[in-house]
Amino acid sequence: MKRVPITLRGAEALRVELRTLKSEARPNVIKAIAEARAHGDLSENAEYHAAREQQGFIEGRIQELESKLSNAEIIDVTQLAPSGRVVFGATVELEDEDTGAKVTYQIVGEDEADIKSGRISFASPIARALVGKSEGDSAEVAAPGGKRNYEVIAVRYV
Sign of torsion, CA 62 15 2 120? Predict the structure, then answer.
């Protein structure tokens, strides 16, 4: 399987979720299953079936997180030499060349993307248009609402 880039912060968030699932959620659902079993007839025991379903979700998420972490290529942006070029993990300040509106995005892995927090996936059209650009460069982005042109104002590695 190929390596998937993720920022240091993103990898740590996955590790925290994994630890929580293993140390809290899994033991709690096992306890709930044991309590539901104690109530007798399992065929008509809604608590038992709900707990088993929850256990399936937890185990599936644990497997998913372990897989993502084992295939992750963790990139610590603070260790990159500041070249002024847009790369994975960089925080980019942009100005829309048509409207003058300014936006700031960090280019992150797909699991970390959260547009409300200003984090966009490296696979998104805007990130693909920006990677490799430098401060002062223009990037044309094929957005759903049509082509947009952005000027790269600043590139930070934080």
Answer: positive
| Cβ-contact 154, 93 below 8 angstroms | yes
Distances (CA, A) of 15 to 52, 61, 88: 24, 12, 20
| pTM for this entry | 0.81
Measured distance CA(58)–CA(142) in Å, rounded: 38
Contact 86, 107 (CB under 8 A): yes
| Contact criterion met (CB below 8 Å) for 30 and 51 | no
Q: What is the pLDDT of residues 3-24, one digit of tens each?
A: 899 999 999 999 999 999 999 9
Structure tokens at 103: 């936006």
Fold of 77-156: Chitinase A; domain 3 (3.10.50)
Of 1.10.287.180, 3.40.140.20, 3.10.450.350, 1.10.760.10, which CATH number belongs to 4-75?
A: 1.10.287.180
Element (H, E) at 19: helix 8-20
